[in-house]
Every structure is written in structure tokens, then in C-alpha cells.
Design goal:
Length: 77
């Protein structure tokens, strides 16, 4: 059975507790991670958004790490 990009991102979050857009692109060819996160949140997933800082501590305004705050009890998506 071929998994959808949403399913791949869900599994990644459950296993690794966080994901970035770059990881989603590299691993799953998912170029619209923000849209997937939106759908997961709409279905009860508790996911936090945190800006990513570079090695000098400068925070990027367009790079985000999505962190699974709490394992979902029900996964309808």
C-alpha cells in the first residue's frame, strides 16, 4: 500500500516528534508541509510551530520546525 504524503508526515511526527519543510521535501517530496500541518491541526493534532535559528542564533522568518506537542488519540486524516 502506497502511503499519502499526509500519512508519511504523520508517521514522521509520531516517530521523531518534529519536522521541517526541508525534511519533508527530502524524505517525502512533500512541498506543502504547512498545508499538511494545517489539516492535522484541524483534525485535533497538537502541533507547535517554532522558528529555526541559524548557527549564529539569528532567527529566520521563513523556516519553521513543527513539533508534535501531544500524541493524538484519534487520527482521522
Amino acid at each position: 500500500m502506497k502511503l499519502s504524503k499526509i500519512e508519511k508526515v504523520k508517521r514522521h511526527l509520531l516517530q521523531n516528534k518534529s519536522i521541517t519543510s526541508w525534511e519533508a521535501i527530502q524524505k517525502y517530496s512533500a512541498t506543502r508541509l504547512a498545508a499538511i500541518i494545517f489539516l492535522l491541526r484541524k483534525n485535533g493534532w497538537k502541533i507547535e510551530s517554532r522558528p529555526i535559528a541559524d548557527k549564529d542564533g539569528n532567527v529566520s522568518t521563513n523556516a519553521t520546525r513543527y513539533i508534535l506537542a501531544k500524541d493524538p488519540k484519534k487520527t482521522d486524516l
